[in-house]
Amino acid sequence: MVHEEAREVESGEGVTHRLCSWVNGLALEDIPEDIKTRAKYLMLDGFGCAIVGAHLPWTEKAVNIVLDMETAGDCLVWGYDKKLGPLSAALLNSTEVQSFELDDWHSLAPLHSNSVMLPALLAAASQQKARANAVITGSNLLLSTIVGYEVGPRVGLCLHGSHMLTRGWHSGTVFGHAACATSVGKLLKLSTDAIEDAVGIACTQACGLMSAQFSSEVKRMQHGFAARNGLFAALLAEGGYSGIKHVFEEKYGGFLSVFGESSGCHPPYLENELVKGLGEIWQTESIRVKPHASMAGTHCTIDTIAGLQKDYPEKLKDLSGVKDITIEMSEAAFKHGGWTAMRPLTATGAQMSCAYVAAVQLLDGQVLPQQFHRDLINRDSIWRLIENTRCQYTPELGQRFEQRVTIAFNDGSSISKTMNAPRGVEPPLTNNEILAKFRTFTRGLIDNKRQDIIEKLVLGLEDITDVSCLDEVLAGSTLDPIA
């Protein structure tokens, strides 16, 4: 049988082992300087998102529940100065990073890398220091984070990237488990075989339903499952626990064969994307940073309407004259953000809805955290616009991010604009813009001195001899941005 033959493949063969061998052998000096620099700015954005998210109502609820059920440990919960075991700390800190749809995403294989890697890596570092008397340096952290940035999107590309969203999978939680396991495995200096064990343990836990986006609070936590489970996998492998070998190429019950089944794509999965261009093509370059506080697929909606506001300021000054709004988009964006929003809507649902963000941009001229306060979500002015908004899949909009917005007025006139991609995708935010975002979004939530310390620590990672100093400054109290 095919699966019996696959088990007979020697451990040195196959894409899984090749990937793990590359991870094991990668050194910081192998990585181009611009990639290392970009990675540090991406990490700063991730920590900024955690500061914004730490004391949002749904985050506080999660933290209080977990603190009540778990005993104290060695790993800090950011924003609370509390300690839990590594798995729970990684879960909660990830929930903070992903709590407000502000965090990074990969433009070809959607996942939120920082919410998976950063919490797991710093939890592993704390565990190592407490239990093994081993100190993790900033260079270790940077290298291990870049490993995760590289692996996660490659897993996603094997499964046709954003097509997983079209099928209803929360793609990042599917792609993120293996990324986290390799990232933490690198931090722990596991052998190639042990990293492959960690990947096999992680992949058997991978899952994530995109229906979480409509109203649940668990949408905020699902990347945390990848952080927790990937960390768990790496710690098990460090202790000698064996995982599934050849997990990506295994034909019977393998990761790609199962998640690729009934994909509708030909071929159903692309095994070689896992190792294609390792060390030459840097997926870190395709990680995008968000300027708006909403799901990435809504950003073209926001920017297209902002373009109409700039082009037709007088026409859009009085919104009572708007008859209807049509938003046309690609299939993945339509299924992810084009669903019909119904009142009452939670903050989770609002941030995932193209109709909602369109109304907010028209009314407020921005889509930032304050737009998702529960009182603002239920404004009658918002819902009058939403009720007259129609989202539709338009096949001719073949590019992944392309959208067209048409606004019709009661006087019979209409205006329309098409955009190929939003700001943050084309062009991506620059490093200076990411720094400005960090400063802007964390201002008032932490004091200026702490802002400055975090900024200097992250952008000067190679000079840090013990990353616990970064963990500790993140653990201090923060404020709720929508209180």
From TrEMBL:
Which Pfam family name is an example for this entry?
A: MmgE_PrpD_N
Q: Which Gene3D superfamilies match?
A: 2-methylcitrate dehydratase PrpD (1.10.4100.10)
Per its UniProt entry, which superkingdom is the organism in? Eukaryota
Tell me which InterPro entries the record gives. MmgE/PrpD_sf, MmgE/PrpD_sf_1, MmgE/PrpD_sf_2, MmgE_PrpD, MmgE_PrpD_C, MmgE_PrpD_N
Limits of the MmgE/PrpD N-terminal domain: 18-261
Q: Which residues form the MmgE/PrpD C-terminal domain?
A: 292-461
Family statement drawn from the similarity comment of this UniProt entry: Belongs to the PrpD family.
Official protein name in the record: MmgE/PrpD family protein
Q: What organism does this protein naturally occur in? A: Paecilomyces lecythidis
